[in-house]
Design a protein that fits this description.
Blueprint: H1 7-14, H2 20-31, H3 33-36, H4 41-47, H5 52-61, H6 67-77, H7 81-93, H8 101-118, H9 122-134, E1 138-142, H10 147-158, E2 164-168, H11 171-179, E3 186-191, H12 197-209, E4 212-217, E5 230-233, H13 246-262, H14 264-280
Parallel strand pairs: 1-2, 1-3, 3-4, 4-5
Length: 287
């Protein structure tokens, strides 16, 4: 078959029609093009936590005879894969050397931030910042590893003068927050792999009541990405056993900066008031 003009767009266009197991595999293909360009079908299956048979069926669903045909198309359409694979090879070669870990962490997180910023849609950034400014209340939801980013987002928005509150790890507290949502509110959901059911339910609830929803996630086909009004995707490659939040944190910094840029005088006034309260209450350490 002739290769599709753009493999990423081809997968995204078919995503909603794919069976659940193939959707998970599609996310892996979209997020790890450099790995798919070289790895065998069995290696991809292992890394994506799928079976080799699922990989083959996925390729055929996309219109290819098999994995090697799909792989050849990815290689042809993503010439930059050599650089990405070389970086991955270097990291693996140095992985057992403790003394190299600081350098690895700096390099990987720098790449995460650069990739994250390159994916930002500036029209969406401006619109999302405006939606935050106009919201009556802001509710931020996350769980697991994503919780740290949600706490940072709550602090960043609060010090800019907004009524922001974080809700972590679902349960009864989340149910109460959802019950109070209105179309005048804004919901921010932070969710990176593995995606938690509670955060998806929040995004669904926001859509049902008409509240604006901003998603911070790690894939354009993450469950919350399809439910949000504005989705910002971060690279989360990690050196250790876990994902890195450096890209997610940079998105929060970016949103905060965009808000301050849209209302500079108001932001400055709020920061000055906070500083005055700190000093009046002797909050800050002073030798």
């Amino acid at each position: 078959m002739p290769p599709p003009p753009n493999m990423r767009e081809h997968i995204l266009a078919m995503f909603e029609t794919l069976p659940l197991k193939q959707r998970r595999l599609a996310r892996f293909f979209l997020d790890h093009e450099d790995i798919v360009a070289f790895a065998s079908a069995s290696e991809v299956a292992e890394r994506a936590e799928a079976s080799a048979a699922t990989v083959v069926r996925f390729c055929r669903t996309l219109g290819f005879e098999g994995y090697t045909d799909l792989q050849a198309t990815i290689r042809a359409q993503f010439p930059q894969y050599r650089t990405a694979v070389q970086k991955l090879t270097d990291r693996m070669a140095n992985g057992s050397q403790i003394k190299s870990l600081p350098t690895q962490v700096v390099r990987v997180n720098s790449q995460n931030i650069e990739q994250t910023m390159s994916q930002v849609n500036h029209a969406d950034l401006t619109a999302a910042a405006s939606a935050i400014i106009q919201a009556e209340q802001i509710r931020i939801f996350a769980g697991g590893l994503s919780a740290a980013a949600a706490v940072l987002a709550e602090h960043a928005l609060t010090v800019l003068g907004f009524s922001a509150r974080v809700c972590l790890n679902g349960g009864a507290a989340q149910a109460l927050e959802i019950s109070q949502l209105t179309r005048r509110d804004l919901v921010m959901v932070v969710s990176i792999w593995r995606y938690l059911r509670d955060t998806v339910l929040v995004a669904q609830a926001a859509r049902e009541v008409g509240a604006t929803c901003i998603a911070l996630t790690d894939s354009s086909v993450a469950p919350i990405a399809r439910l949000a009004d504005y989705t910002f995707v971060a690279a989360t490659e990690g050196v250790a056993h876990s994902r890195s939040l450096a890209g997610i944190f940079s998105l929060i910094d970016l949103l905060s900066a965009a808000i301050a840029t849209q209302r500079p005088q108001e932001s400055l006034a709020v920061l000055q008031r906070i500083d005055a309260v700190y000093r009046q209450n002797d909050t800050l350490w002073n030798e």
